[in-house]
Fold this sequence. Notes:
The protein is α+β, with helices and mostly antiparallel strands. Helix content is 29%, strand content 29%.
Amino acid sequence: MHSRIFLETGRLRLRHFTDTDADAELLVALDSDPEVMRYLGNGRPTPSDVIRHEVLPRFARSQVWAAEERSTGHFVGWFALTPRVGGPADDLELGYRLRRAAWGRGYATEGSRALVRKAFTDLGARRVYAETMFVNTRSRRVMEKAGLSFVRVFHEEWDEALPGAEHGEVEYAVTREGWAL
Length: 181
């Protein structure tokens, strides 16, 4: 698969998604794992047609990148660095979703650190933030290891609340000045 490389780390290659069947299949497989989706949609998979006709076209034209192991080329998941809709362009949200086989190997931290660095050194970011459920301790730990600090707990209204939603959501962030220290 030929796609433009956005960023490389010691073990990861982040490339632009392509609007192809191959990338669609990677995302379908990722979002079909109930554990991967545990804090998103109550563990239910994202329907294949939604991935093919909504998610992948959006990823292919935005700041969301497929993450692959540099040594093998195996897909490990995706990373994102995007401004909030209607928000300032220099306030970027860090996001990631990795295959269960990649968990516990430091890939989320490695990719997140590289994107935070890129945000401040190349992309003109003023602040990088990330959000997750309060009870998602693994993701919170990645945010901390990537240099983000706890900002707040907040509560969202959900049509169908996930287990643990009563504890709220958390925001972590780092500013350019805080990162440069």
